[in-house]
Amino acid sequence: MEAYFNLQQLAKYLRITESAVEHLLKNSKIPAVETPSNVYIFKKSDIDAWVKGRRGKIQELLEKDETL
Q: How much is the pTM?
């Protein structure tokens, strides 16, 4: 069975704030699935691939955007 995170769990997993996750989501910079109830969930395997593709430079991605 595939593992999923909610926003709070993902923030803890990535060691960033919930507002940082929301910012990445708002700007379509992170893979997410919208449920029928308009809640976003994050597939662990997609997140792991996303992190690996950025070689762990998530903080740098956040710092480049001055709106955070």
A: 0.81
